[in-house]
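Reply to thread "Modeling small-molecule complexes from scratch"

Following up on the discussion above, here's a worked example others can learn from. I took a protein sequence and the SMILES for magnesium ion and predicted the complex. Inputs first:
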Amino acid sequence: MSFRLTARCKFDALTDIPIAFLESRGCELLLLDLDNTIAPYGEPLPRPEVTRWVQRVTDAGITAHIVSNSRKTERVKRFADALGVRYVVRARKPFPVVMRTVIDGLNVPPQRAVMVGDQIFTDTLGANLAGAVSVIVKPIRLSNALLALRYAAESPFRLLTRKDTQQ
Ligand SMILES: [Mg+2]
């Protein structure tokens, strides 16, 4: 557990993460942020390429699980059902409690859990506090000024995060 604002590594998009990357880290559990990681705010269902990517993750024997701060239970459930994964809403990231409850509930050592998200101050910090492997992706769409501002504030930490070089 550590208070770090840099992720273990970064990719441009969720579907850019090679399954081999997850396997090379012994990943057993893939925790996924929803908004702007799986889909932009407002989109009702995952795009086909995301569904295919999550299927490949599942085929590799890795459990995928949505961990969202959203209060929109119906929206999150719709995505989870479409992707065939479990979910939790109101996760209160960056507080690690809910994330850690998911990890411990599935009997996975935290260092074998990978958390992918688009926000440093929630997803990355929360993953680091939970003892999971943090991966940052670019937000799919900065659809309002607040999101753009937050992205700008996160930029130094993104720059300090390395791209995966082990592939
Ligand atoms: Mg997000």
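What I'd highlight from this example: The two ends are 26 Å apart (CA to CA). The pocket of magnesium ion is lined by residues 33, 35-37, 117-119 (CB under 6 Å). Questions welcome below.
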